[in-house]
Amino acid sequence: MPDQHNSISSSLYSALERHGQIKTISLPRMQGELVLIYFEELTDLKLIRRHITEPLQELLQSDLPLEALIHHIPLEQQGPVKQRSAIIEHLIAGWTYVYGIHEPDGYLFNTRKSIQRSPSKPEVESQIMGPQIAFTESLETNRALLRQYLPDPNLRFETFRIGEHTRTEVQLLYMEGKAREADVKLLKERLSKVNEDGITDTSMLLQSIDDDPRSLFPQMVPSERLDRVILNLTGGKLVVMMDGTPSALISPSPFFDFFKSAEDDYLRRNMAMFLRLLRTLAIFISVFFTPMYVAALTYHYQLIPSNMLVPLAQSRSKVPFPPLMEALLLEFIIELLREAGARLPTKVGQTMGIVGGIVIGQAAVQAGFTSNILIIIVALAALSSFITPVYLMGAAIRILRFPMLLLAGWLGAVGIMIGVSFLILHLLRLSTIGHSYMYPLYPMNLGMMKKSKRAWQKRTTQDIFEEPAGDRT
């Protein structure tokens, strides 16, 4: 245990020992010894030797006070430090504490060991055109990437610590002068109130800062792409980043932002509009195709064209289940295959998904559990759900199929309309950090809908959500 007359008390030293193996180095000098304390497994030992011990050893024989010696150390430092809690917190984070015998105060130096991977290609949001740079799990690296590709002095970083024990670092990013002050203030308040331990990813943080965490629909777009984050920052939106995760949260994010791919910005306008219309059509196919089949076969045979009745009757002649049970069985099998493929290694998962779908589908038809036509419809609906660029929204759309199926089997087309009505009411009630979730459909803004994607990017969030009433129709 160190001398009782130095700046660290015996109780503090005992507390440090309880946190793990600590290391001390004593350097003799004219006015007493200098002591370095750090956690060996958390610190960069080469950094300590090169920038702390070697410079200090060259100056120890001088009669300079500790405060003067500290200025010769070329590292990020905090000092003088007296609070026991601050010292322990920084030591656990990889810092080194330097104090002198008979000195009233000590100093902290950032010697944290950097354990991180280099930026690589996006894995979740892969695309052909545009920059192929994705964020990493290191917040420092992500911040450096943003500074490199967005060298604007108006870019602001607000830092928060969440979790009483984990103390995870979270940063709020925005462009001063473009982002709405009310949005920045609201998101600051929400981040400052988050005090849950164990939040290791922005998808978990999203559930604590959404306008309606109970909703099936996410209200912020997660993204791992550097270019997408930069485009949204320059457009006046806010970005939340967290240490330990490669994904950032973009807000405000209306409903239709979840169906925009980062690649749309690199395509011609007509091509991008076609792809967005295709994704919009895929939503309706995924949610309503199978329920419409169940409703038509159960209650509304008169809606089926006469030349399709015979093939449908022949296809279902050996099926012992009603259309609802048949559809639920196939949807359940599709979800099992999707979940199994996602949990297996990449190559094995892809093979299992393809082979499993073919084998199970063919066997189900031959055994009389389902019809060929329903297999085509369910496969098309499942394929359409994967077109959505944002995974969280795609998962929400897949889940919506099940209540729609139950309503279709219970009340037919009336049940589908009831489900659609509740869905529309729910979407109209949602908001994204105070803004309408269904903008520009609600409130209606045809002028904004006609704007090109370039014009949308050039306008700030304040311009979009605070237009004069005369500009809205």
Automatic annotation (TrEMBL):
The residues that cross the membrane are: 277-299, 373-392, 404-428
Matches recorded under InterPro entries: Spore_Ger, UPF0353/GerABKA_families
Q: Where is the signal peptide?
A: none
Which keywords does this chain's UniProt record carry?
Membrane, Transmembrane, Transmembrane helix
- In the UniProt record, does the keyword Transmembrane helix occur? yes
Key word Ion transport present in the record? no
Would you identify the family this protein belongs to, as annotated? Belongs to the GerABKA family.
- The protein in question is named Spore germination protein A1
Q: Which organism is it from?
A: Paenibacillus allorhizosphaerae
